[in-house]
Automatic annotation (TrEMBL):
<dbReference type="InterPro" id="IPR050618">
    <property type="entry name" value="Ubq-SigPath_Reg"/>
</dbReference>
<dbReference type="Pfam" id="PF10607">
    <property type="entry name" value="CTLH"/>
</dbReference>
<dbReference type="InterPro" id="IPR024964">
    <property type="entry name" value="CTLH/CRA"/>
</dbReference>
<dbReference type="InterPro" id="IPR013144">
    <property type="entry name" value="CRA_dom"/>
</dbReference>
<dbReference type="Pfam" id="PF08513">
    <property type="entry name" value="LisH"/>
</dbReference>
<dbReference type="InterPro" id="IPR006595">
    <property type="entry name" value="CTLH_C"/>
</dbReference>
<protein>
    <submittedName>
        <fullName>Glucose-induced degradation complex subunit</fullName>
    </submittedName>
</protein>
<dbReference type="InterPro" id="IPR006594">
    <property type="entry name" value="LisH"/>
</dbReference>
<feature type="domain" description="CTLH">
    <location>
        <begin position="65"/>
        <end position="122"/>
    </location>
</feature>
Length: 235
């Protein structure tokens, strides 16, 4: 904001702000459940086990199931998509049977891995057998398939207009989609609550910025607040 804009706003001093924050009572049990939710959803099994013992907070799920989910996710991230499909079918075959989009994206990732390995003939046969039928039934799948097959048209796919498909982020995207589906099948939340609350905090601050000068949260990791009496904060 400009220096002049800040002078026109009501100012809330640090002492008043901290007093208001201290008046907000949050139960320790709620904080513990929030932490456990993050550990379980993100797959930190050992940390969840330790936290369960120390806080007596129940994870709400068999922690062994988290290990299975993380192994499946790791397989996709490593490019071992076939292994991931086998593992998820062992875990719960209905996950892929009922989610056609996820099933397509996993097969699409298998195709990308074949192209990455330079197995052109195998890639063409695989696309014809496993992906073309999906494209015939769904126009969106057909567009994705055509875009993936375009990788074969370039000698160096990594410098092509569709190079993003060869990036590690594409594996991460597929792995995250599969991870969310597994969580949903286990009646777990697809995303941890903590990042959502942090996004809500940032949104609330953006709403206050136009109305007040106040101690803003400027460091989420350290929990550090700005001082509204510091003229540099008004720039």
């Amino acid at each position: 904001m400009g220096r002049g804009d800040g002078l026109d706003k009501k100012k809330v001093l640090m002492d008043d702000w901290e007093r208001k924050l201290a008046a907000v009572k949050i139960r320790k049990e709620d904080m513990n459940r929030l932490i456990m939710n993050f550990l379980v959803t993100e797959g930190y099994v050992e940390a969840a086990q330790t936290f369960q013992q120390e806080s007596l907070t129940q994870p709400g799920i068999d922690l062994a199931a988290i290990t299975d989910r993380m192994e499946i996710r790791k397989a996709v991230q490593s490019g071992n998509v076939e292994e991931a499909i086998e593992r998820v079918n062992d875990l719960n075959p209905e996950i892929l049977e009922e989610n056609h989009q996820l099933s397509f994206h996993l097969q699409q990732q298998r195709l990308i891995e074949l192209i990455r390995q330079g197995q052109t003939e195998e890639a063409l046969e695989f696309a014809q057998e496993y992906l073309a039928p999906h494209g015939e039934e769904n126009e969106a799948f057909l567009e994705e398939l055509e875009r993936t097959m375009a990788l074969l048209a370039f000698e160096d796919a990594r410098s092509s207009p569709v190079a993003d498909l060869m990036d590690i982020s594409q594996r991460q995207k597929t792995a995250s989609e599969l991870n969310a589906a597994i969580l949903s099948s286990q009646c777990q939340e697809k995303e941890p609550r903590l990042p959502t609350l942090l996004k809500l905090l940032l949104w609330a601050q953006s709403q206050l910025d136009s109305k007040l000068q106040y101690p803003r949260m400027v460091d989420l990791v350290a929990g550090r607040l700005s001082d509204p009496t510091d003229v540099n904060q008004m720039c």
